[in-house]
From TrEMBL:
One of its GO terms (molecular function) is branched-chain amino acid transmembrane transporter activity. It comes from Rhodopseudomonas rhenobacensis. GO terms for biological process: L-amino acid transport. Keywords: Amino-acid transport, ATP-binding, Nucleotide-binding, Transport. The lineage of its organism: Bacteria, Pseudomonadati, Pseudomonadota, Alphaproteobacteria, Hyphomicrobiales. Belongs to the ABC transporter superfamily. This is Branched-chain amino acid transport system ATP-binding protein. Residues 5-234 form the ABC transporter domain. The keyword ATP-binding applies. CDD domains: ABC_TM1139_LivF_branched (cd03224). SMART domains: AAA. Involved in beta-(1-->2)glucan export. Transmembrane domains (TMD) form a pore in the inner membrane and the ATP-binding domain (NBD) is responsible for energy generation. InterPro entries: AAA+_ATPase, ABC_transporter-like_ATP-bd, ABC_transporter-like_CS, BCAA_Transport_ATP-bd_LivF, P-loop_NTPase.
Length: 240
């Protein structure tokens, strides 16, 4: 299996704080890899460093054979990387339609792909001409994800998409991610919801103190409660 993304010895400093301490991992093409860890372990910093929002101070990041740790965020996005931050990246003063038009490569989303997205997130079609700022938290999360997938991406970086959402919306997100994977997308996903992690993940990476401390199959970790407690401080069931 070919690795799409590789991090080797990546360090990240934010001001005087040393957040990532030699992060090493590889993400296989066409798989969904869960990035788990306690709060403050460095998960969000890892995604932001890959995306170029916080520059790596040492080490290399390779995407499909190309080094990207020194290039700007817009160029990384043009290479086919979609990013969904925990903060729900939507333009509140623009409509749902305008948000998706801005995210489309040529300013005109593909109609068939939009209908595919609406199948998972029908609220976006219902509120097509409404301001994004007037949407509920769950609907804003739908829009944030829709912005990232309105064009096919070779890699999706998604940070805690189910946080604070109702079970019905979480179910729609799980279905969407499963279909993205079926279509060949590669996903690196930070998630605290055990049900979502177990349903979505193929592989798992666990971080602690800015480094990877475990890597393996998601199913193996899901079935090993003592390992969960050792790595995460509690069982994954407690994260629901």
């Amino acid at each position: 299996m070919t690795d799409l993304l590789t991090l080797s010895g990546v360090h990240t400093h934010i001001g005087r704080y040393h957040i990532l301490h030699g992060v090493d991992f590889a993400i296989p093409e066409g798989q969904t890899t869960m990035l788990l860890g306690r709060n403050g372990a460095g998960k969000t910093t890892t995604l932001r460093t890959i995306m170029g929002l916080w520059p790596a101070s040492a080490g290399s990041i390779t995407l499909a054979g190309q080094r990207i740790e020194k290039i700007a965020t817009p160029e990384i996005a043009r290479l086919g990387v979609g990013y969904v931050p925990e903060s729900m990246a939507v333009f509140s003063d623009l409509t749902v339609k305008e948000n998706l038009v801005l995210a489309a490569r040529d300013g005109a989303p593909d109609t068939a792909r939009l209908e595919w997205i609406f199948g998972f997130f029908p609220a976006l079609k219902k509120f097509w001409l409404s301001r994004a700022g007037a949407l509920s938290g769950g609907q804003k999360q739908m829009l944030s994800i829709a912005r990232a997938i309105v064009e096919p991406r070779q890699l999706l970086l998604i940070d805690e998409p189910t946080k604070g959402l109702a079970p019905a919306i979480i179910g729609a997100l799980i279905d969407c991610f499963a279909e993205l994977k079926r279509r060949g997308a590669t996903i690196l996903l930070v998630e605290q919801n055990f049900h979502a992690a177990r349903e979505i993940g193929d592989a798992v990476l666990v971080m602690d103190n800015g480094a990877i401390v475990h890597r393996g199959g998601m199913a193996d970790l899901a079935n090993d409660i003592p390992l969960q407690e050792r790595l995460l401080g509690l069982s994954l069931e407690a994260h629901q």
